[in-house]
Amino acid sequence: MASVSAPKSLQGSLEYVKAPQRDNIGDNSQVIELVTTVLKDVRERGDAAVRDYSQKFDGVSLDQFEVSPADRQHAVDQLDKQTRADTEFAIENVRRFATAQLGTILPLEVEPLPGLHLGHTVIPIQRVGAYVPGGRFPLLSAPIMTIVPGKVAGCDEVVACLPPNAHKAMVAGCHLSGADRIFLIGGAQAIAAMAYGTDSVPAVDKIMGPGNAFVNEAKRQVFGPVGIDQLAGPSEIFVVADSTGNPELIATDLLAQAEHDVRTRVGLITTDKALAEATLKEVERQLRDLATAEIAGESWKNYGEIVLCADDAAMIAYSDHVAAEHLQVHTADAHGFAKKLRNYGSLFVGENASVVYSDKNVGTNHTLPTMGAGKYTGGLWVGSYVKIATYQWLESDAIRAVAPAAMRQSDSEGLEGHRKAAAIRLERLNAVA
What we know:
CATH topology of the largest domain: Rossmann fold
Order of helices and strands: EHHHHEEEHEHEHEHEEHEHHEHEHEHEHH
Structural class: alpha/beta
GO cellular component, one term: cytosol
Number of strands: 14
Distance between the termini: 71 Å
Pfam families: Histidinol_dh
Helix content: 40-55%
EC number: 1.1.1.23
Shape: globular
Largest sheet: 6 strands, mixed
CATH class of the largest domain: Alpha Beta
């Protein structure tokens, strides 16, 4: 199980109190062929293929994929008062945090040499696609996380796709979050439609949002002609804890994520054997009464793990190896310990910082890297919706400074055209002088 096995340097410092039974990365291999077929078909047949796959996979046949303005408003009107208030509370928190983040992404212009002006500008992506998973439950926060940052960033158009059998409240969430267009298309066919465009769905420049293994694989395959935010697969949560950890809290948080999907990966990394054993018992106890135990229990059985580490150094090293999507820190000095960790999607410092708050409404984005991607990237944020594009312009002093070196370098590389492009400007400048 390559995705969960420890590096050789740590193998003598770890003991599995509960080992995972399956590898959720290797389990993705079976979807590749099917996704390849779906993408090719949608690219060639457009709406007709999308309609066929919607019928095949979702059991829904639609004459029109786009949700009309009247149906959008009807979905909002059907929300009960408290659900709408809670949704708008979450939207405002996400908007507030995204706006603060955007304020840190500043244009730049410097003059490193006299007359040499270098800079970058911040350009919103023109059209983005937001995939909104339907899943087993109506995840009302899902559209907020993918749509609101795009509107804050200033994208011209945010196109949302969600499965046709998704709860109507999800349509309302897309509308309230500011989606310019909403389409009832799910799965790999939605990714194909947004990537290639159809008669109904406009081609987008970048696709955002998490999904199941089929959505994830589709995003991987279309990357290139269109951008993607990241490969955000089934959810993950790990907790790093010392002897001060509370097994009831830890078990509760592990199962809260495990109920997302039968492929969710959850785990505890600890230096305390008593806590490891108590947490194992507590998970089994809570599963007996959990309404979503059918899903959470399968996830726990197949992908759950509890790892006992020899010391703090091994605990940190193993956590960084896992690079969990959600990483909770339950140690005596949680803030101090958190500073020693470097690989994760989002960090939850102290036992009060449950993943559920970020999942729902505090304002940080819940679309995060999984399957070890936290080693090289962070999660979805407002910066994902803009491009940082450089520019330069030169005055006479700068040409005199850089042209001779550029000519010599081009000459040494055997690139005569490059040398001439630098030389002609210097020659024209000298002729005027």
